[in-house]
Amino acid sequence: MPPPAGLGAQRTESATSLMTHPIETAGPGERRHHPYVVLAVCCLSLFLVMLDVTVVNVALPSIRRDLHTSMAGLQWSIDGYTVVVASFLMLAGSTADRFGRRRTFQTGLAVFSLGSLCCSLAQTTLQLVLCRVLQAVGGAMLNPVAVSIIANTFLEAKARARAIGIWGAVVGVSMAVGPLLGGVLTETIGWRSIFWVNVPIGVLAIGLTARFVPESRAPVARRVDAAGQALVVVALASLTSALIEGPHAGWRSPFIVSAFSTSAVALVALLWQERRFPEPLIDLRFFRSIPFAAATLVAVLAFTAFNGSLFLHSLYLQESRGLKAAAAGLCLLPTAIAMVICSPLSGRLVGAGHARTAMVIAGTAIAASALFFTGLRPDTDLSALLAAYAVFGVGIGTVNAPITNAAVSGMPRARAGVAAAIASTSRQVGATLGVALAGSIAGGGGVLGPEFAYATHPVWWLVVGCGLSIVALGFASTSERARSSALGVAHLLDAGSGGRAR
After folding, report:
1. 11-225+277-495 maps to which CATH number?
2. Which sign, positive or negative, has the C-alpha torsion 224, 47, 241, 77?
3. pLDDT by residue (tens digit) across 261-294?
4. C-alpha to C-alpha distance for 369 and 383, rounded to whole angstroms
5. Where are the domains positioned within the chain?
6. Which residues contact 252 (CB under 8 A, 6 or more apart)?
7. In sequence order, what are the residues at sequence separation of 6 or more whose Cβ sits closer than 8 angstroms to the Cβ of residue 335?
8. What is the 8-class DSSP label of residue 317?
9. At CA 44, angle to CA 181 and CA 2, rounded to 5?
């Protein structure tokens, strides 16, 4: 789940991508149609993907009961999506540049809609996970390609700024609507309906894209780093498998040891491949910039905390407190509302040169809310619980702007979009690890019901650590040494533009 899954492209991330991607012209013979209709179509795709994150989480207890799904099965129903999105997010952008953004976007919508329909028809956990993988293949093509389409539609700076604001607002709307809509649909019609809603919206978006979105391509498409792409998939998938299946198979079992070993070997091979390939999927020179390296790590930490927390709270509210799905969705609204409010405020704070302050606020809020959750009980006072959810939303809503700012800080214009894409991928990696770790730690013993509240305590201490680490990285990424390293990398990239990563 993007992005989030994930949350994929948040307001500030999308804004930065629009401003830093080079603007390219439409293909020969194409003319631009109604730019705000094009924006509406792109926003429709963002709404689909972002809605899917919270809707599916709220439905997890119903899916567990209907399909007799284990904790590992629930984890895979989320991570099957986020692993694929994290693995193919950067490839989707280069594919669109090569074969056409409109064509890639329509393909993504079609695959996402088909995957959603298949999810609604799944009769077993395995079928659901495989359908979620199919859904994710389409989802990976949507948001990054939509950003490129918008950049090629709104060429005038003020109009593009307005488009950015509308695009970012859709994130907030989908986050606010998602938990409540998912709860109501699950409680009244059934969990399968959360996937049905994607199909007519997806079909409508395909038709609107064909009618209103002009085709465009990059003047020169990047070479495909097939080996690097394959190694990313192997490394992430094997690590996720080990984390999810470890509590059930045994951490010392041959399968788990092999999975961890495969992930490590794939990571080493990826580093070797990216150093020698002329146009690598991940340019390792970026990581010589302290702000960029810190942004990548903060993205992983923040979304490990966010997606792991969302996974556990959806189960806690329904399994431990005994709330209905709609009531559980309503309880999660404070997090979404706080994110909606804090995201633009954080963007302004970062824009005013206070990125360190934003990072410290974000990390402190995440750690403070998680510290409260370390005492979670089945009968925890509801008003205190809702307040803690709001504080957590402050942290997640505030962290996105400094992540993107640190990622692109000092980068040459031509490389800033790629840097932002790597930061976005790091969010999806964090989302994957968050669900894998949370489910394995809290649900490894198969404990559900009232006692599940106590089983989550170790996870909240892990989230406290994530928050405090974000605070520390906030200071590290904004120091004089960090700024100097970013400038050094910028000169290196300018000097070796188009060269091999060294």
Report:
1. 1.20.1250.20
2. negative
3. 999 999 999 999 988 888 888 888 888 888 889 9
4. 14
5. 11-225+277-495, 226-276
6. none
7. 389, 390, 392, 393, 396
8. I
9. 70
